[in-house]
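One-letter codes give the sequence; the fold follows as tokens. An example follows:
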Amino acid sequence: MATLTLQIDNSSILEKVKDVLSLIQGVHIISINRNTAIDNIPNDTTLSAMKEAESDNDAGSVDTSSLQAFINSMN
């Protein structure tokens, strides 16, 4: 399954686009008229990473000298 996100700045064509897309077999419209402010809210993973970064728990340095060193430093 693939996801396609459309941003339609012209609200007058929104219903027409929705109608055309709903006619295509296999296309499901998940949401319409999403508030752009909602898009700016970090998801749970991002919030967790932000809290970790703000805490006193230092994850240590990341070694980028080579791919293997990078992978090893992530453990």
Summary: Residues 42 and 50 are 9 Å apart (CA to CA).
